[in-house]
Amino acid sequence: MNVFEKEVQSKRNDAVDSAVGFIVSFGFFATMFIIATLIEFFGR
């Protein structure tokens, strides 16, 4: 048995955590893009 598997901090699935991280980062950059597009549109 692996030494590091004796006391794990979280037993959740890593795919769920990585999906949440991807969605949060994608949402942040999409929001930045939308704000920049709106500024460019109303700045004309």
UniProtKB/TrEMBL annotation:
Keyword list, A-Z: Membrane, Transmembrane, Transmembrane helix
Transmembrane segments: 20-42
InterPro entries according to UniProt: YqzM
Protein name in UniProt: YqzM family protein
Organism of provenance: Geobacillus thermodenitrificans
